[in-house]
Amino acid sequence: MRWKIGALFGAIVVAGAVYWWQLADNEQAAAASLVLYGNIDIREVRLAFNGNEHVSEILVDEGDRVEANQLLARLHSEQLQAAWERASADVAALEAEAHAAALSYQRIKTMAARKLASVEEADEAEGKSRAAAARVAAAQAVVKESWQALEDAELFAPVDGVIRERIVEPGDFVTPQTPVLTLTLLNPVWVRTYLPEMYLGKIKPGAVASITTDSFPDKVYTGWVGSISPTAEFTPKNVETPDLRTRLVYQVRVFACNPQFELRLGMPATVSIDLDQATGPNARPEERCAETDAR
User: How do the domains of the chain map onto residue ranges?
Assistant: First the structure.
């Protein structure tokens, strides 16, 4: 009977040792990685015309994918076209006057050299010629300005992106302060997350990260730590972990490669960072993602 009790006691000791060994091993593995929660963030551009006029047409809708330099919208340009034509006609007339004034000056200058005209007459002719040339230059500036106004009647996409919001419609009067469209950029894409102070010294910019989302649970996106805020703040209310909401944390930007454009603004994301890794170079997002795609 005693040997049975001893064997049972020994089995309990061994099982306990195995349990604590596994627990310590799991804690060590957990300590070697850091999991952060956040949301996808993408830059946006609010596009506006560089002129004051009524909108003629909007050529894109919300959700449309656009390319850099693609025409997005137009203003009514009838008055702008007429102003440019008037300015061009003024230049032609003033150039004719300037040409005549220059010929007159050359003729009087020659006559003055032969003592057939006075020096005062030559000086007066020169002044008229210079004034006519100045009027031509001023008129040419008006032509250039009116042509620029014509060009500003068209709104082009500055970069590749997706139209998120169509703010005005044809017939609306706009100024340079009136947003017309909101354009969401395709790159860079990053996760805005928050780091507790206890981990502040354990990760650095350039550290490789793995990013997952609920929308695509079977897909892992390559990422890396882009920046860590130099100042602490209280955790925002939208952070999903209740134990962090009353702590001071540091905002972290974790860039993500998004080759299929599946990551969208505001999407919840989980970031995993290996704390034992060697920190790599903190390259620009497009360079880092290009390297990843090449592999």
Answer: 33-42+187-294, 44-76+153-182, 78-151
Decide: 157 and 70 in contact? Cβ < 8 Å. Answer: yes
| Ranges under pLDDT 50 in the chain | 1-30, 294
Contacts by residues 123-130 (CB-CB < 8 Å, ≥ 24 positions apart): 125/101, 128/101, 128/104, 129/98, 129/101, 129/102, 129/104, 129/105
Burial class of residue 287 in the structure, from the number of CB atoms within 10 Å of its CB (0-12 exposed, 13-18 middle, 19+ buried)? exposed
AA letter at 19: Y
Which class would CATH give 33-42+187-294?
Answer: mainly beta
- Residue 25 has what pLDDT? 40
User: Would you mind telling me the total number of residues written for the chain in this entry?
Assistant: 295
- Whole-angstrom distance, CA of residue 89 vs CA of residue 69: 31
3-state secondary structure of 66: strand
- Name the helix (H) or strand (E) containing 6: helix 2-31
Q: How does pLDDT run across 116-167, given as a tens digit for each residue?
A: 878 888 888 889 989 999 999 999 999 999 999 999 999 999 999 999 999 9
Cis bond before residue 188 (omega within 30° of 0): yes
Burial bucket for residue 163 (CB in 10 Å: 0-12, 13-18, 19+):
buried
C-alpha radius of gyration, the chain, whole number: 35
